[in-house]
Amino acid sequence: MPLQLGRSIISNAQIVWLRRDLRLVDQAAFCAAAEHGPVIPVYVLDDETPIAGGSDRRLGGAARWWLHHSLQSLADDLGLRGSKLILRRGRAADEIARLAQETGAKTVHALHHYEPWWRAAEEELAARLDLSLQDGNFLLPPGTISTGSGMPYKIFTPFRDAMFAAIDGFDILPEPSLATPDQWPASDDLSDWQLLPTKPDWAGGFGAFWEVGTAAALDRFDDFVEQAPDYDTNRNMPALDGSSRMSPHLHWGEVSPRMLWERLAGDGSDGASSFRSELVWRDYAQNLVRQFPDYPEKPYRDGYGENFWRDPAQDSEAAEDLRAWQQGRTGYPIVDAGMRQLWHTGWMHNRVRMIAASFLVKHLLIDWRHGDRWFWDTLVDADYANNGTNWQWVAGTGVDANMFVRIMAPLSQSAKFDAGDYIRQYVPPLAHLSDEHIHDPSAEQRPNAYPDKRIGHKQARERALATYRSARDG
User: At 339, which CATH number?
Assistant: First the structure.
Protein backbone atom coordinates (compact mmCIF):
# COMPACT_ATOMS: atom_id res chain seq x y z
CA MET A 1 0.00 0.00 0.00
CA PRO A 2 1.74 3.21 -1.09
CA LEU A 3 2.26 5.86 1.57
CA GLN A 4 2.46 9.54 0.70
CA LEU A 5 3.15 12.20 3.34
CA GLY A 6 1.44 10.17 6.05
CA ARG A 7 -1.51 9.26 3.86
CA SER A 8 -2.66 5.67 3.31
CA ILE A 9 -4.04 5.61 -0.22
CA ILE A 10 -6.63 2.82 -0.40
CA SER A 11 -7.79 1.72 -3.83
CA ASN A 12 -11.50 2.43 -4.33
CA ALA A 13 -11.97 3.37 -0.65
CA GLN A 14 -15.57 4.13 0.29
CA ILE A 15 -16.25 6.20 3.41
CA VAL A 16 -19.50 5.67 5.34
CA TRP A 17 -20.20 8.75 7.45
CA LEU A 18 -22.29 7.77 10.49
CA ARG A 19 -24.35 10.03 12.73
CA ARG A 20 -27.70 8.75 14.03
CA ASP A 21 -27.67 5.53 12.00
CA LEU A 22 -25.48 3.17 14.03
CA ARG A 23 -26.48 -0.19 12.56
CA LEU A 24 -25.61 -2.60 9.75
CA VAL A 25 -29.07 -3.94 8.82
CA ASP A 26 -31.41 -1.77 6.71
CA GLN A 27 -28.62 0.75 6.35
CA ALA A 28 -28.58 2.07 2.79
CA ALA A 29 -25.28 3.94 3.14
CA PHE A 30 -23.42 0.74 4.03
CA CYS A 31 -25.16 -1.12 1.19
CA ALA A 32 -24.25 1.55 -1.37
CA ALA A 33 -20.63 1.73 -0.22
CA ALA A 34 -20.21 -2.04 -0.20
CA GLU A 35 -20.96 -2.18 -3.93
CA HIS A 36 -17.90 -0.12 -4.86
CA GLY A 37 -14.90 -1.08 -2.74
CA PRO A 38 -13.38 -1.36 0.73
CA VAL A 39 -15.61 0.31 3.32
CA ILE A 40 -14.31 2.69 5.99
CA PRO A 41 -17.01 3.46 8.58
CA VAL A 42 -16.40 6.68 10.50
CA TYR A 43 -18.14 8.56 13.28
CA VAL A 44 -17.16 12.17 13.97
CA LEU A 45 -17.86 13.65 17.39
CA ASP A 46 -18.79 17.16 16.30
CA ASP A 47 -19.05 19.80 19.02
CA GLU A 48 -17.89 22.54 16.67
CA THR A 49 -20.28 22.88 13.71
CA PRO A 50 -21.98 26.25 14.22
CA ILE A 51 -25.76 26.35 14.63
CA ALA A 52 -27.77 29.11 12.98
CA GLY A 53 -28.89 31.75 15.46
CA GLY A 54 -26.24 30.80 18.00
CA SER A 55 -28.25 27.92 19.51
CA ASP A 56 -26.15 25.36 21.37
CA ARG A 57 -27.25 21.90 20.32
CA ARG A 58 -24.15 19.97 21.28
CA LEU A 59 -25.01 16.55 22.66
CA GLY A 60 -26.32 16.57 26.22
CA GLY A 61 -24.83 14.51 29.00
CA ALA A 62 -27.33 11.62 28.86
CA ALA A 63 -27.05 11.39 25.06
CA ARG A 64 -23.27 11.16 25.37
CA TRP A 65 -23.65 8.21 27.74
CA TRP A 66 -25.81 6.39 25.21
CA LEU A 67 -23.54 7.34 22.32
CA HIS A 68 -20.50 5.84 24.06
CA HIS A 69 -22.19 2.48 24.47
CA SER A 70 -23.81 2.55 21.03
CA LEU A 71 -20.48 3.26 19.32
CA GLN A 72 -18.86 0.48 21.33
CA SER A 73 -21.64 -1.91 20.31
CA LEU A 74 -21.28 -1.02 16.63
CA ALA A 75 -17.50 -1.29 16.82
CA ASP A 76 -17.89 -4.77 18.32
CA ASP A 77 -20.33 -5.76 15.54
CA LEU A 78 -17.91 -4.51 12.90
CA GLY A 79 -15.00 -6.23 14.60
CA LEU A 80 -16.78 -9.59 14.42
CA ARG A 81 -16.94 -9.05 10.66
CA GLY A 82 -13.27 -8.12 10.31
CA SER A 83 -14.03 -4.43 9.96
CA LYS A 84 -13.43 -1.39 12.18
CA LEU A 85 -15.10 1.83 13.27
CA ILE A 86 -12.92 4.91 12.76
CA LEU A 87 -13.44 7.68 15.29
CA ARG A 88 -12.54 11.31 14.68
CA ARG A 89 -13.33 14.52 16.55
CA GLY A 90 -13.89 18.02 15.17
CA ARG A 91 -16.05 19.77 12.59
CA ALA A 92 -17.68 16.93 10.71
CA ALA A 93 -17.26 18.36 7.21
CA ASP A 94 -13.57 19.09 7.84
CA GLU A 95 -12.84 15.71 9.41
CA ILE A 96 -14.61 13.73 6.69
CA ALA A 97 -12.83 15.71 3.97
CA ARG A 98 -9.52 15.14 5.77
CA LEU A 99 -10.16 11.41 5.99
CA ALA A 100 -11.00 11.31 2.28
CA GLN A 101 -7.70 13.01 1.50
CA GLU A 102 -5.79 10.62 3.75
CA THR A 103 -7.29 7.50 2.17
CA GLY A 104 -7.79 8.67 -1.39
CA ALA A 105 -11.55 8.07 -1.09
CA LYS A 106 -13.55 9.84 -3.78
CA THR A 107 -17.03 9.13 -2.43
CA VAL A 108 -18.61 9.49 0.99
CA HIS A 109 -21.85 7.62 1.69
CA ALA A 110 -24.30 8.73 4.36
CA LEU A 111 -27.95 8.78 5.30
CA HIS A 112 -29.90 12.03 5.00
CA HIS A 113 -30.27 13.96 8.27
CA TYR A 114 -32.67 16.86 8.63
CA GLU A 115 -31.48 18.83 11.65
CA PRO A 116 -30.42 22.23 10.30
CA TRP A 117 -26.79 21.83 11.35
CA TRP A 118 -26.50 18.46 9.60
CA ARG A 119 -28.11 19.82 6.44
CA ALA A 120 -25.55 22.63 6.47
CA ALA A 121 -22.71 20.15 6.99
CA GLU A 122 -23.99 17.99 4.13
CA GLU A 123 -24.09 20.98 1.80
CA GLU A 124 -20.57 21.99 2.79
CA LEU A 125 -19.22 18.49 2.32
CA ALA A 126 -21.02 18.02 -1.02
CA ALA A 127 -19.21 21.13 -2.30
CA ARG A 128 -15.84 19.54 -1.45
CA LEU A 129 -16.23 15.93 -2.65
CA ASP A 130 -18.71 13.36 -3.92
CA LEU A 131 -21.36 12.92 -1.23
CA SER A 132 -23.85 10.13 -1.89
CA LEU A 133 -26.87 10.53 0.40
CA GLN A 134 -29.43 7.78 0.97
CA ASP A 135 -32.73 7.61 2.85
CA GLY A 136 -33.26 5.28 5.78
CA ASN A 137 -33.81 7.00 9.13
CA PHE A 138 -37.58 7.29 8.67
CA LEU A 139 -40.49 5.28 7.33
CA LEU A 140 -40.64 7.46 4.21
CA PRO A 141 -38.27 10.25 3.17
CA PRO A 142 -39.46 13.61 4.55
CA GLY A 143 -41.32 15.45 1.84
CA THR A 144 -42.70 12.28 0.25
CA ILE A 145 -46.21 12.77 1.58
CA SER A 146 -48.06 15.93 0.54
CA THR A 147 -51.60 17.27 0.47
CA GLY A 148 -53.87 17.16 -2.57
CA SER A 149 -52.53 20.60 -3.51
CA GLY A 150 -48.96 19.37 -3.30
CA MET A 151 -48.16 21.20 -0.06
CA PRO A 152 -46.50 19.65 2.99
CA TYR A 153 -48.85 18.56 5.75
CA LYS A 154 -48.94 20.63 8.92
CA ILE A 155 -51.62 18.71 10.85
CA PHE A 156 -50.79 15.25 12.17
CA THR A 157 -54.03 13.31 11.66
CA PRO A 158 -54.30 13.75 7.87
CA PHE A 159 -50.53 13.19 7.64
CA ARG A 160 -50.90 9.92 9.55
CA ASP A 161 -53.80 8.79 7.38
CA ALA A 162 -51.83 9.57 4.22
CA MET A 163 -48.81 7.69 5.57
CA PHE A 164 -50.90 4.64 6.41
CA ALA A 165 -52.38 4.69 2.91
CA ALA A 166 -48.95 5.03 1.29
CA ILE A 167 -47.18 2.26 3.20
CA ASP A 168 -47.62 -1.26 1.91
CA GLY A 169 -44.86 -2.96 3.83
CA PHE A 170 -41.10 -2.54 3.48
CA ASP A 171 -38.28 -4.55 1.95
CA ILE A 172 -35.65 -4.54 4.67
CA LEU A 173 -32.12 -4.18 3.34
CA PRO A 174 -29.94 -7.10 4.46
CA GLU A 175 -26.61 -6.54 6.13
CA PRO A 176 -24.03 -6.14 3.35
CA SER A 177 -20.74 -7.97 3.14
CA LEU A 178 -18.06 -5.37 3.79
CA ALA A 179 -14.72 -5.47 2.02
CA THR A 180 -12.00 -4.04 4.25
CA PRO A 181 -8.88 -2.05 3.40
CA ASP A 182 -5.45 -3.59 3.77
CA GLN A 183 -4.46 -0.66 5.96
CA TRP A 184 -6.74 1.34 8.24
CA PRO A 185 -6.50 5.10 8.81
CA ALA A 186 -5.79 6.41 12.29
CA SER A 187 -8.63 6.50 14.80
CA ASP A 188 -9.28 8.12 18.15
CA ASP A 189 -9.76 5.91 21.18
CA LEU A 190 -13.39 6.01 22.37
CA SER A 191 -12.35 6.27 26.03
CA ASP A 192 -10.39 9.45 25.25
CA TRP A 193 -13.63 11.21 24.33
CA GLN A 194 -14.78 10.99 27.97
CA LEU A 195 -18.43 10.64 27.03
CA LEU A 196 -19.18 8.88 30.32
CA PRO A 197 -19.52 10.79 33.60
CA THR A 198 -16.83 10.28 36.21
CA LYS A 199 -17.40 11.88 39.62
CA PRO A 200 -20.16 12.13 40.50
CA ASP A 201 -21.43 9.26 38.36
CA TRP A 202 -24.92 10.62 37.82
CA ALA A 203 -25.55 7.91 35.20
CA GLY A 204 -25.13 5.07 37.68
CA GLY A 205 -28.74 3.92 37.21
CA PHE A 206 -28.62 3.94 33.41
CA GLY A 207 -26.83 0.62 33.06
CA ALA A 208 -29.43 -1.24 35.13
CA PHE A 209 -32.26 0.20 33.03
CA TRP A 210 -30.80 -0.08 29.52
CA GLU A 211 -29.04 -2.47 27.20
CA VAL A 212 -27.59 -0.61 24.23
CA GLY A 213 -27.07 -1.69 20.64
CA THR A 214 -28.92 -3.36 17.78
CA ALA A 215 -29.09 -6.84 19.29
CA ALA A 216 -30.45 -5.52 22.59
CA ALA A 217 -33.02 -3.38 20.76
CA LEU A 218 -34.33 -6.30 18.71
CA ASP A 219 -34.51 -8.56 21.76
CA ARG A 220 -36.48 -5.91 23.61
CA PHE A 221 -38.80 -5.38 20.66
CA ASP A 222 -39.42 -9.10 20.24
CA ASP A 223 -40.70 -9.12 23.82
CA PHE A 224 -42.80 -6.06 23.07
CA VAL A 225 -44.41 -7.66 20.00
CA GLU A 226 -45.98 -10.28 22.27
CA GLN A 227 -47.56 -7.49 24.37
CA ALA A 228 -48.47 -5.24 21.43
CA PRO A 229 -52.21 -6.09 21.44
CA ASP A 230 -52.42 -4.58 24.95
CA TYR A 231 -50.23 -1.58 24.15
CA ASP A 232 -53.11 0.85 23.68
CA THR A 233 -53.94 0.46 27.39
CA ASN A 234 -50.60 -0.43 28.94
CA ARG A 235 -48.66 2.47 27.39
CA ASN A 236 -50.57 4.89 29.66
CA MET A 237 -49.85 3.03 32.90
CA PRO A 238 -46.56 4.30 34.41
CA ALA A 239 -46.30 1.44 36.91
CA LEU A 240 -46.31 -1.16 34.10
CA ASP A 241 -43.44 -2.02 31.79
CA GLY A 242 -45.84 -1.44 28.93
CA SER A 243 -43.77 0.88 26.75
CA SER A 244 -41.64 -0.38 23.90
CA ARG A 245 -38.70 1.76 25.14
CA MET A 246 -37.52 1.92 21.53
CA SER A 247 -37.07 5.70 21.45
CA PRO A 248 -33.30 5.82 22.12
CA HIS A 249 -32.65 2.84 19.85
CA LEU A 250 -34.57 4.62 17.09
CA HIS A 251 -32.96 7.98 17.75
CA TRP A 252 -29.45 6.55 17.47
CA GLY A 253 -30.42 4.39 14.51
CA GLU A 254 -29.55 1.08 16.13
CA VAL A 255 -32.76 -0.10 14.46
CA SER A 256 -34.73 1.55 11.69
CA PRO A 257 -38.46 2.30 12.04
CA ARG A 258 -39.00 0.15 8.95
CA MET A 259 -37.56 -2.86 10.78
CA LEU A 260 -40.00 -2.38 13.66
CA TRP A 261 -42.94 -1.81 11.32
CA GLU A 262 -42.21 -5.10 9.57
CA ARG A 263 -41.87 -7.01 12.85
CA LEU A 264 -45.46 -6.00 13.60
CA ALA A 265 -46.68 -7.20 10.21
CA GLY A 266 -49.98 -9.04 10.50
CA ASP A 267 -50.89 -7.59 13.90
CA GLY A 268 -54.11 -5.67 13.35
CA SER A 269 -54.74 -4.91 17.02
CA ASP A 270 -55.45 -1.43 18.34
CA GLY A 271 -52.19 -1.62 20.28
CA ALA A 272 -50.12 -2.33 17.18
CA SER A 273 -51.93 0.47 15.35
CA SER A 274 -51.09 2.88 18.18
CA PHE A 275 -47.44 1.93 17.98
CA ARG A 276 -47.42 2.42 14.22
CA SER A 277 -48.95 5.88 14.77
CA GLU A 278 -46.06 6.71 17.09
CA LEU A 279 -43.59 5.69 14.39
CA VAL A 280 -45.47 7.97 12.00
CA TRP A 281 -45.22 10.79 14.58
CA ARG A 282 -41.41 10.60 14.21
CA ASP A 283 -41.82 11.16 10.47
CA TYR A 284 -44.29 13.97 11.14
CA ALA A 285 -41.82 15.75 13.43
CA GLN A 286 -39.07 15.53 10.82
CA ASN A 287 -41.43 16.87 8.17
CA LEU A 288 -42.13 19.87 10.39
CA VAL A 289 -38.41 20.52 10.89
CA ARG A 290 -37.89 20.21 7.16
CA GLN A 291 -40.52 22.94 6.66
CA PHE A 292 -39.50 25.05 9.69
CA PRO A 293 -35.84 24.36 10.58
CA ASP A 294 -36.01 26.42 13.79
CA TYR A 295 -39.32 24.90 14.94
CA PRO A 296 -37.81 23.59 18.22
CA GLU A 297 -36.36 27.04 18.91
CA LYS A 298 -39.34 29.39 18.76
CA PRO A 299 -43.16 29.18 19.00
CA TYR A 300 -45.03 28.76 15.77
CA ARG A 301 -48.12 30.67 16.97
CA ASP A 302 -48.16 34.37 17.77
CA GLY A 303 -49.04 35.53 21.28
CA TYR A 304 -46.56 33.35 23.17
CA GLY A 305 -43.57 35.66 23.24
CA GLU A 306 -41.27 36.28 26.18
CA ASN A 307 -43.81 38.50 27.95
CA PHE A 308 -46.25 35.60 28.19
CA TRP A 309 -44.04 33.55 30.52
CA ARG A 310 -42.50 33.99 33.95
CA ASP A 311 -38.78 34.46 33.35
CA PRO A 312 -36.40 32.49 35.62
CA ALA A 313 -33.60 34.86 34.64
CA GLN A 314 -35.48 37.86 36.03
CA ASP A 315 -37.81 36.34 38.65
CA SER A 316 -36.22 34.52 41.61
CA GLU A 317 -39.44 32.69 42.45
CA ALA A 318 -39.74 31.46 38.86
CA ALA A 319 -36.10 30.38 39.00
CA GLU A 320 -36.78 28.31 42.12
CA ASP A 321 -39.91 26.85 40.52
CA LEU A 322 -37.82 25.75 37.53
CA ARG A 323 -35.18 24.17 39.79
CA ALA A 324 -37.89 22.40 41.79
CA TRP A 325 -39.36 20.99 38.58
CA GLN A 326 -35.95 19.87 37.33
CA GLN A 327 -35.14 18.17 40.63
CA GLY A 328 -38.54 16.56 41.23
CA ARG A 329 -39.49 18.79 44.18
CA THR A 330 -42.80 20.28 42.98
CA GLY A 331 -44.95 18.61 45.65
CA TYR A 332 -46.95 16.79 42.97
CA PRO A 333 -45.97 13.12 43.30
CA ILE A 334 -46.60 12.07 39.70
CA VAL A 335 -44.57 15.02 38.36
CA ASP A 336 -41.75 14.44 40.82
CA ALA A 337 -41.65 10.71 40.09
CA GLY A 338 -41.27 11.46 36.40
CA MET A 339 -38.51 14.01 36.87
CA ARG A 340 -36.63 11.67 39.21
CA GLN A 341 -37.04 8.77 36.78
CA LEU A 342 -35.56 11.02 34.11
CA TRP A 343 -32.50 11.77 36.24
CA HIS A 344 -32.08 8.14 37.33
CA THR A 345 -32.57 6.44 33.96
CA GLY A 346 -32.23 9.09 31.23
CA TRP A 347 -35.81 8.42 30.16
CA MET A 348 -39.35 9.17 31.27
CA HIS A 349 -42.61 7.32 30.70
CA ASN A 350 -44.53 8.90 27.82
CA ARG A 351 -47.75 9.65 29.75
CA VAL A 352 -45.72 11.20 32.56
CA ARG A 353 -43.72 13.28 30.06
CA MET A 354 -46.97 14.96 29.02
CA ILE A 355 -48.01 15.52 32.64
CA ALA A 356 -44.60 16.91 33.66
CA ALA A 357 -44.34 19.10 30.58
CA SER A 358 -47.84 20.50 31.04
CA PHE A 359 -47.05 21.24 34.68
CA LEU A 360 -43.98 23.32 33.78
CA VAL A 361 -45.75 25.27 31.06
CA LYS A 362 -49.21 25.77 32.57
CA HIS A 363 -48.95 25.33 36.33
CA LEU A 364 -45.62 27.16 36.62
CA LEU A 365 -46.04 29.39 33.52
CA ILE A 366 -42.44 28.80 32.45
CA ASP A 367 -41.50 28.91 28.77
CA TRP A 368 -41.52 25.44 27.20
CA ARG A 369 -38.03 26.03 25.84
CA HIS A 370 -36.60 25.74 29.35
CA GLY A 371 -38.16 22.29 29.50
CA ASP A 372 -36.94 21.37 26.05
CA ARG A 373 -33.36 22.29 26.99
CA TRP A 374 -33.55 20.30 30.24
CA PHE A 375 -34.78 17.28 28.33
CA TRP A 376 -32.05 17.85 25.74
CA ASP A 377 -29.42 17.36 28.45
CA THR A 378 -31.09 14.60 30.46
CA LEU A 379 -32.78 12.32 27.90
CA VAL A 380 -30.86 9.48 26.25
CA ASP A 381 -33.36 9.83 23.38
CA ALA A 382 -33.09 13.64 23.13
CA ASP A 383 -34.20 14.44 19.60
CA TYR A 384 -34.31 17.89 18.01
CA ALA A 385 -37.48 17.31 15.99
CA ASN A 386 -39.40 15.00 18.32
CA ASN A 387 -38.78 16.94 21.51
CA GLY A 388 -39.48 20.32 19.95
CA THR A 389 -42.69 19.07 18.35
CA ASN A 390 -43.85 17.45 21.58
CA TRP A 391 -43.16 20.53 23.69
CA GLN A 392 -44.96 22.82 21.25
CA TRP A 393 -47.92 20.42 21.23
CA VAL A 394 -48.18 20.48 25.03
CA ALA A 395 -47.68 24.24 25.26
CA GLY A 396 -50.32 25.02 22.65
CA THR A 397 -47.79 27.02 20.64
CA GLY A 398 -47.27 24.63 17.74
CA VAL A 399 -48.64 24.31 14.24
CA ASP A 400 -50.74 21.35 15.45
CA ALA A 401 -51.09 21.56 19.21
CA ASN A 402 -53.23 20.93 22.26
CA MET A 403 -55.00 24.18 23.19
CA PHE A 404 -53.24 26.10 25.96
CA VAL A 405 -56.51 26.30 27.89
CA ARG A 406 -56.65 22.50 28.17
CA ILE A 407 -54.73 22.14 31.41
CA MET A 408 -53.89 18.64 32.58
CA ALA A 409 -54.76 17.91 36.23
CA PRO A 410 -51.71 15.96 37.47
CA LEU A 411 -53.39 14.63 40.62
CA SER A 412 -56.37 13.11 38.82
CA GLN A 413 -54.12 11.87 35.99
CA SER A 414 -52.01 10.06 38.59
CA ALA A 415 -55.03 8.29 40.05
CA LYS A 416 -56.63 7.59 36.67
CA PHE A 417 -53.55 5.80 35.41
CA ASP A 418 -52.82 4.00 38.68
CA ALA A 419 -49.35 5.50 39.20
CA GLY A 420 -49.02 4.49 42.86
CA ASP A 421 -46.26 1.91 42.44
CA TYR A 422 -44.47 4.19 39.99
CA ILE A 423 -44.42 6.95 42.63
CA ARG A 424 -43.24 4.49 45.29
CA GLN A 425 -40.32 3.48 43.09
CA TYR A 426 -39.06 6.98 42.31
CA VAL A 427 -40.22 8.98 45.35
CA PRO A 428 -39.24 6.70 48.26
CA PRO A 429 -40.38 9.14 51.01
CA LEU A 430 -43.96 8.44 49.87
CA ALA A 431 -43.59 4.67 49.53
CA HIS A 432 -45.49 3.98 52.78
CA LEU A 433 -48.67 5.70 51.60
CA SER A 434 -51.74 3.78 50.47
CA ASP A 435 -53.15 3.92 46.95
CA GLU A 436 -55.84 6.21 48.31
CA HIS A 437 -53.41 8.84 49.57
CA ILE A 438 -50.22 8.56 47.50
CA HIS A 439 -51.43 10.65 44.55
CA ASP A 440 -52.19 13.72 46.67
CA PRO A 441 -50.97 13.31 50.26
CA SER A 442 -52.21 15.81 52.83
CA ALA A 443 -49.83 17.97 54.84
CA GLU A 444 -50.07 15.50 57.72
CA GLN A 445 -49.26 12.56 55.45
CA ARG A 446 -46.25 14.19 53.82
CA PRO A 447 -42.95 13.31 55.49
CA ASN A 448 -40.46 16.10 56.13
CA ALA A 449 -38.36 14.78 53.25
CA TYR A 450 -41.11 15.61 50.75
CA PRO A 451 -41.97 19.23 49.88
CA ASP A 452 -45.30 21.04 49.87
CA LYS A 453 -46.88 21.93 46.55
CA ARG A 454 -45.17 24.79 44.74
CA ILE A 455 -48.64 26.05 43.80
CA GLY A 456 -52.16 24.66 44.23
CA HIS A 457 -53.83 23.19 41.15
CA LYS A 458 -56.82 25.56 41.25
CA GLN A 459 -54.60 28.61 41.73
CA ALA A 460 -52.28 27.52 38.93
CA ARG A 461 -55.17 26.88 36.56
CA GLU A 462 -56.74 30.27 37.24
CA ARG A 463 -53.39 32.04 36.77
CA ALA A 464 -52.73 30.25 33.47
CA LEU A 465 -56.19 31.04 32.10
CA ALA A 466 -55.93 34.69 33.17
CA THR A 467 -52.53 34.97 31.46
CA TYR A 468 -53.95 33.43 28.30
CA ARG A 469 -56.97 35.78 28.27
CA SER A 470 -54.77 38.79 28.85
CA ALA A 471 -52.48 37.84 25.96
CA ARG A 472 -55.46 37.09 23.69
CA ASP A 473 -57.26 40.33 24.47
CA GLY A 474 -54.21 42.54 24.81
Answer: 1.10.579.10
